[in-house]
Amino acid sequence: MTAAYSQLAAHFGKVAALSNAVGILQWDSDVMMPKGAAETRAESMALLHVLRHGMVTDPRIGDWLDTADGDTGLGDWERANLREIRRSWTVETALPADLVEASSKAISASEMAWRQARADADFKALLPYLAEVLKLQREIGRAKGEKLGLSAYDALLNDYEPGGRSAKIDALFDDLADFLPGFIEEVLAVQARRPASPAPEGPFPVEAQRALGLQMMAALGYDFERGRLDISTHPFCGGADSDVRITTRYDETDFSRALMGVLHETGHALYEQGRPQAWLSQPVGHARGMSLHESQSLLVEMQACRSREFIGFAAPKMLEAFGGSGPAWQADVLWRRYTQVQRGLIRVDADEVTYPAHVILRYRIEKALIADEMPLSELPGVWNAQMRELLGVTPPDDRLGCLQDIHWPSGGWGYFPTYTLGAMTAAQIFDAACRAEPEILPGIGRGDFKPLVGWLRANIHGLGSLYETDELLTRATGRPLDAGVFKAHLKRRYMGE
């Protein structure tokens, strides 16, 4: 192995250590930081982002890469690591340090403004902060796009989905947008012919909900020695290598929201905790893009934990946690409720049939905003109009409309399409896993997730970024992404009488 490769590996080990510090500070900002610390934290975060940017754009990296490329002694993992280092270096060198710093500060201010604006249902209060973030994201997208030969939006998308292109997503999403409204109507008609499913009666104390969530996390195989569960305004998975933390939010009138949030985020966490330990500090050890990351959260929440097998296992645990009684706690009744389809306002609470419509709306809007094809001030009106068109509902206020997600205030432009790409991928991976390992569904019915997680460790988690997304999915499932598998899953689960 050449000295050049060793120097790259050591250098990016330091980058990883700095990224871990940023991850913990960001988690603290979202979960525990007092409001009065926001300005100081913003300065600290901005400096750390600039330092990290400086390390990733170090002038020596180009020479090291060129020299290491000629090293005939490198194995597959080292070669893939060089590919990922070059990808990161190419993108980061497109950005000047002052733009990185300005973006970090704007995001910190915008996130804090969003929390208050969301509470007050007041988009106008967020508008100047979000406008600054958007302006800088356009600059970032253009700068990266010029370096990569991409549009500004595709350059931003590439950060979350390496190799992803909006032209391909447009075709997939237009097909879904044509399919979903009619399919939703058919599903609602099927549900209307079923007996009513009574709801479990609350209230459901937060401590009991938390205990149940922890119990389910343990069943899934979450490692509490390398993570924790907390509360935040918006559920997320974050932290650092070997310190993978998740959050949820509680509603004492409906325990399913927090529980499904915990299961979803645990899917993300299992991916992070299952990454190749020998490569954690190197780019090749990172998760392979956000479509695959979202596939892991949706595979756990939607594919596995809304299955009849899981509800059969979990129903007695739910009853015990809340001291319930009566038909509402029967497994079959709970399963019907957990697979209930309804037109709703909130993305994170949406069922898997209506969920893609929420994502398509956001994808179309953020593309138009990055391309400067609509004024940001028109966001609430455009949002509401598209909600009516795609889902047949209209938000009564901005809190339940365009202020519900933190992604845009936090600079996550280009992230949203990965949710529905992830749902399609989840269906395909779960289908392949169950065909390859017949013990997966029976195991879930017993609360034993080892067969499922073991298959995922071998075919997804433990491979990090060894392969590009399409190759990884093809190796795991036998084919590239096929939307037909997702549609077949929806029809099978929701059209049965």
From TrEMBL:
<dbReference type="InterPro" id="IPR001333">
    <property type="entry name" value="Peptidase_M32_Taq"/>
</dbReference>
<keyword id="KW-0645">Protease</keyword>
<dbReference type="Pfam" id="PF02074">
    <property type="entry name" value="Peptidase_M32"/>
</dbReference>
<comment type="similarity">
    <text>Belongs to the peptidase M32 family.</text>
</comment>
<dbReference type="GO" id="GO:0006508">
    <property type="term" value="P:proteolysis"/>
</dbReference>
<keyword id="KW-0378">Hydrolase</keyword>
<dbReference type="GO" id="GO:0004181">
    <property type="term" value="F:metallocarboxypeptidase activity"/>
</dbReference>
<keyword id="KW-0862">Zinc</keyword>
<feature type="active site" description="Proton donor/acceptor">
    <location>
        <position position="265"/>
    </location>
</feature>
<dbReference type="GO" id="GO:0046872">
    <property type="term" value="F:metal ion binding"/>
</dbReference>
<keyword id="KW-0479">Metal-binding</keyword>
<feature type="binding site">
    <location>
        <position position="264"/>
    </location>
    <ligand>
        <name>Zn(2+)</name>
    </ligand>
</feature>
<keyword id="KW-0482">Metalloprotease</keyword>
<feature type="binding site">
    <location>
        <position position="294"/>
    </location>
    <ligand>
        <name>Zn(2+)</name>
    </ligand>
</feature>
<protein>
    <recommendedName>
        <fullName>Metal-dependent carboxypeptidase</fullName>
        <ecNumber>3.4.17.19</ecNumber>
    </recommendedName>
</protein>
<keyword id="KW-0121">Carboxypeptidase</keyword>
<comment type="function">
    <text>Broad specificity carboxypetidase that releases amino acids sequentially from the C-terminus, including neutral, aromatic, polar and basic residues.</text>
</comment>
<feature type="binding site">
    <location>
        <position position="268"/>
    </location>
    <ligand>
        <name>Zn(2+)</name>
    </ligand>
</feature>
